[in-house]
Amino acid sequence: MKKIQLIICALFCSVIVNAQSNKEDIALIQAMFGKEKKALVSEFMTIPDAKKDAFWKLYDEYEDKRKALGQERISLIEAYAGDYTSLDDKKATSLMTRKFALLDKFTKLQQTYYTKFSTVIGGLQASKLFQLEDYLENNIRLYIQEQIPFVGELDKTKVELPAPKQ
């Protein structure tokens, strides 16, 4: 049991350290798509030359705020990893409350910036940008979810040893 806990702890640490040392999600996006996010956005979007400066300035502003939320996500994963073996109703509720608050912040950020991007590049292109954002975010969430054991998953690994023969 201790061996399994150590493996899971090491897995969490590697995911967390990897995410932090590679500036949040950049390493994941590069691993999944072979290029940095900004390059993907540049290839995916159709921005008229006259609007490119305004678009990229706004995009960088959006990314700074999105990355701050990424740090909150890392903090939440660290809390889950730290509490995993002693998770009870109170800790689980606290973690889920933080998760819902983080999702709410992310949705509000996207709503705010969708309006701003619509003003700069129009609603259709802004929709296209946030469709890509959702696609990338969902892939990252899936990757992270696959690295994290479900609540109680360690309990499944418990094996009862037979009583010693006398």
Task: Describe the structure in your own words.
This protein is 78% helix and 0% strand. The protein has 166 residues and is an all-alpha fold. The protein has one domain. The N terminus is likely disordered.
| Unreliable parts | 1-22
As for the number of domains, it is: 1
Q: Give the helix proportion (percent range).
A: over 70%
**Number of E-state strands:** 0
The structure class reads: mainly alpha
Describe the SSE topology.
Elements: H1 2-21, H2 26-33, H3 37-44, H4 49-83, H5 89-121, H6 123-147
Give short descriptive properties of this protein.
single chain, disordered N terminus, mainly alpha
Task: Quickly describe the structure.
This protein is mostly helical.
